[in-house]
Amino acid sequence: MTVLLSAAPLAILFLTFLLLRPQSIWPATIGSDPQVSLPARPGYPFKIALFADLHFGENAWTDWGPRQDVSSVNVMSTVLDDETPDFVVYLGDVITANNIPIANASLYWDQALSPTISRGIPFASVFGNHDDAPFEWPLEWFSAPGIPPVHCPVANSSFSDCSFRGIQRLQLMKNEIEQNAQSFSSKGPVDLWPSISNYVLPISPTNNSRSPVAYLYFLDSGGGSYPEVISNAQSEWFKTRSLEINPDSRVPELIFWHIPSKAYEKVAPSSGVPKPCVGSINKETVASQKAETGIMDILANRTSVKAVFVGHNHGLDWCCPDNKLWLCYARHTGYGGYGTWARGARIIEINQHPFSIKSWIRMENHDVHSQVDLSS
Amino acid sequence: MTVLLSAAPLAILFLTFLLLRPQSIWPATIGSDPQVSLPARPGYPFKIALFADLHFGENAWTDWGPRQDVSSVNVMSTVLDDETPDFVVYLGDVITANNIPIANASLYWDQALSPTISRGIPFASVFGNHDDAPFEWPLEWFSAPGIPPVHCPVANSSFSDCSFRGIQRLQLMKNEIEQNAQSFSSKGPVDLWPSISNYVLPISPTNNSRSPVAYLYFLDSGGGSYPEVISNAQSEWFKTRSLEINPDSRVPELIFWHIPSKAYEKVAPSSGVPKPCVGSINKETVASQKAETGIMDILANRTSVKAVFVGHNHGLDWCCPDNKLWLCYARHTGYGGYGTWARGARIIEINQHPFSIKSWIRMENHDVHSQVDLSS
Description:
The structure is a homodimer.
Chain A: H1 7-20, E1 38-40, E2 46-51, H2 64-83, E3 87-90, H3 106-118, E4 123-125, H4 169-179, E5 199-205, E6 214-218, H5 232-245, E7 253-256, H6 263-267, H7 295-300, E8 305-310, E9 319-322, E10 325-329, E11 344-351, E12 356-363, E13 368-373
Parallel strand pairs in A: 1-5, 2-3, 3-4, 6-7, 7-8, 8-10
Antiparallel strand pairs in A: 2-11, 5-6, 9-10, 11-12, 12-13
Helix pairs in contact in A: 2-3
């Protein structure tokens, strides 16, 4: 069958496609990678909200598991409505995969994204140690009365599809990207495998996409299915990539990953949060990566790198300087995971003229505290 | 094309099929389960060799990994040629799945079975804690010089098939059964999931399949992808099954699993192997299951249960009595896994008239030691 269309409807169709296709609304950086930029409104600050350690999907076979996920959605909704950020970073431990007895943990990942997606806010994610982990069977399930009703398998007398091994990083990331036009996440270079969430995003004014305001670097700090570490290969990738796209260190760079590096142990206050650190809770010791393979030396020697942001420790929310570099914790956002400290989210605000990077913590009860200038 | 065959060759073909089809040479127990019996030659002892903790597949990216697998094949070959057993039990930790960076660990499982298969000896297996476990990435692979060449993925720039999560129990067992007519293993009742290797095999004289000499029970003691435990459900299954097929406890029963129960801790000698225990090495403490959910009480109260056989502790090879029940270790058979104690295999010999269960350990250097009468 042949369909005849005049030129005008075809042009409208084509324009509609251009407008609606994923990421077509975000200006692309011309030339080599990175191709996709985050759009900054000229003359306005660019605001980022960090959602750390949401831990969706815990104990879905009990009442309290699903209830705390609802509470976590409320925290995120409050922060998004109070701050109206331009961008959200999911800073790892989005789900507690080792606590999810179903084959497809993306269900919970999607729940965690939903407050951001429903508000049309672009976002990106990095992996934490709980995102890609096999299910840990509770020992008590092996006593009487046995395994509670779960999604498989006894009812249909087949257990071949019941792996409960968690979704792997690669599949989680594919699902996020393919199902969400607002996702700016990327699955990173293949030679950095088994780490996945390694990529860079420029923030560029919509009227001048060739002059980024800042570069945001995301690194996978491992854990779950492999050791908690940023590899030598990842460090070398950062070194090469940053020199390639920002050779004169003119553009400021911010770094995001989940598990604190050993450098955090060095700057951690022994008690309270005395100056020059800024924060409100210092309730536990730093739980750092298993090894330091070079990334911190590279960051310390690069003048354009202003700050590193991590999650992982729910009882820490400080920023401390390490020479010219700020080492910052986010704030425990989710009701999932250990700890009962009040929930909130770290906010980062980047101003281009005059240049500044400010940060503060927005709490679930609307309070704001721990303002710090990371560009000083 | 039509092929015409006379009746005589067709009859020969049919008879050949009857003789060669899997398990057709083993008489089936008539009536309800268990359908398959191990054939005992009337008037001869029935001899079982236990191959414990072979740990195939360790560090395949080095020289010493494959070399020790060759050594393990040599141990098994020596034992099989010296003892010519009627049956072999692979008593768990056949592979070290957490050390195998390939998707299909059945390759190494098959290597471990090969000395038995090549001699045409029937066998069965139970799972150990190392058989179904995800790959544990060595931390040093994340420093320079990075990940050694493995079976995937960088060469073809695709890592979607590189899960390295180990084969699950179910798939391992399916592979073993489907690929080996000599395998008497079974994947067990679906309602005992996630444990898999739970089944019973009668040993029956070929001239009287209705009068078993003994029942061999195999239980999955967990570990790897779920806790190291024999569940309440497994205990109840044993209780029900044994009452059903051996209601008057007339037929002796032997029990095989991998990880010692807590009862082993109670009978373990503090040093050496003093009587009434029998054995040659007592070099470490018992590494027992994480909980005791009832199986030991059931076994202790059943007069037909004569002995339990486990592996797991490479430095222990004793049998100790626990009231009327013998708790026995096998002997570390493989060059894989920890420990450098000389390798060997526990042998069990069952005589019907007069009834006896004898056991000893056959070493790689042909020595025999630790003879014990388990029917006394």
